Amino acid sequence: MPEGPLRKQRDVPAHYIEALPENVLRRGVLRFAAVASMTAAAGLWLVPVLPGDAVMQLFKLAVSAVLALGGVAILARTRTAQAPEVHVDTQQRRLTIIERDAQGHVRSRQCHAVDGLTEIVLRDNMLSARDTQGAPLFALPVSDPAVEAALRRMLA
């Protein structure tokens, strides 16, 4: 990431994905809670109500809507962010950023010459780059030691 005394003062590039460890247990618990909430929203209507009790019907409608929307919100929270594909050609010294939409179709493709970039840094297992105007291009985690070694050779 670019330098700065505080995270709030740093320029965050458009292609920045937090390098958070994947927590399978947390995701499983959240998915279970989301499904349970949505099931409870539907199951609430199985409880009988006295005929003509409009206030209770309205209350059931409000509670089931809150449960269903809460379940959908929790389920949406468990989705992982899709990082752009970054292809680095060490022979031709080119960097290609490919963004895909939810269906997997290519939304944008940007090619940059490594020598034409203002800054490209590999530090603390993060590869970051700035374009010719100095704007942040991307900051992505690099976890594979072989990839990190190849990038270091290219940047040397």
Radius of gyration: 24 Å
CATH architecture tag of the largest domain: Roll
Q: Widest sheet: strand order? A: 1-7-6-5
Can you write the helix and strand succession as a string?
Answer: EHHEEEEEEH
Q: What would you call the structural class? A: alpha+beta
What is the percent of helical residues? Answer: 25-40%
Number of helices: 3
CATH class assignment of the largest domain: Mainly Beta
Mean pLDDT: 79
Shape: elongated
Integer tally of domains:
2
As a percent range, the share of strand residues is 15-25%
What ranges have pLDDT less than 50 throughout 5 or more consecutive residues? Answer: 1-14
Quote the CATH topology of the largest domain: PH-domain like
Question: How many extended strands?
Answer: 7
Main beta-sheet annotation:
4 strands, mixed
Terminal CA distance: 19 Å
Q: Can you tell me about this structure?
A:
This is DUF2244 domain-containing protein. It comes from Pelagivirga sediminicola. There is one protein chain. By secondary structure, this protein is an alpha+beta fold. It has two domains: 24-77; 82-155, Roll (PH-domain like), CATH 2.30.29. Helices cover 35% and strands 24% of the residues. The protein is built from three helices and seven strands; from the N terminus they run E-H-H-E-E-E-E-E-E-H. It has helices at residues 24-43, 54-77, 145-155, and strands at 15-16, 85-89, 94-100, 106-113, 119-123, 126-130, 136-141. It has a four-stranded mixed sheet with strand order 1-7-6-5, with helices on one face. It has a three-stranded antiparallel sheet with strand order 2-3-4, with no helix packed on it. A hairpin with a 5-residue loop joins strand 6 (126-130) and strand 7 (136-141). The longest helix has 24 residues, at 54-77. The model is unreliable at 1-14 (pLDDT under 50).
